[in-house]
Amino acid sequence: MPIFRRWTEQLKQVGPVAGGTGSWESHSVTVSGGVITVANPGIYAVTGEGGVADEIDTINGGNSWDEIILYAADTDQTITLKHATDNIQIGYDFNLDANYDMARLIKRSDGIWVGGGIGDNA
């Protein structure tokens, strides 16, 4: 079993996240004008607007201390998380463009998403 799949399967078994508003479920989200919107903690497959490579400047939704994991729904579409453009502070721009690339982010109480990328360009 690939590492990413094994890791996500383990996360799904965690159940409700303490202090959060949901469980580790899989979701799909599409970038729109550099923005994605998340509803609950969980794992999000990200698709670029119009089905092409895209950039994420802003993450809307979620509650303080919610945790999300993002990965590209299609590895032929590079999705770039932009550091310090709006409410994403991960230390560097990070590309989600391979099977093992993902970003793990937590929303601070001030609305900033922090964390980092895991994969070949971390």
In short:
This protein has 122 residues and is mainly beta.
Question: How would you portray this structure in words?
Answer:
The structure is a single chain. This protein is mostly beta strands and 122 residues long. 8% of the residues lie in helices and 40% in strands. The chain has one domain (3-111). The chain is built from 1 helix and 11 strands, in the order αβββββββββββ. The two termini are 22 Å apart.
**Spatial strand arrangement across the major sheet:** 1-3-6-10-11-8
- Spatial shape: globular
Output the number of helix runs. Answer: 1
Largest sheet: 6 strands, mixed
- How many domains? The number is 1
Strand content: 35-45%
Approximate helicity band? under 10%
Rg (C-alpha, Å): 13 Å
Provide mean pLDDT, rounded. 85
Structural class: mainly beta
**Separation, N- and C-terminal Cα atoms:** 22 Å
Residue ranges: pLDDT <50 for 5 or more in a row? 14-21
Helix and strand pattern: HEEEEEEEEEEE
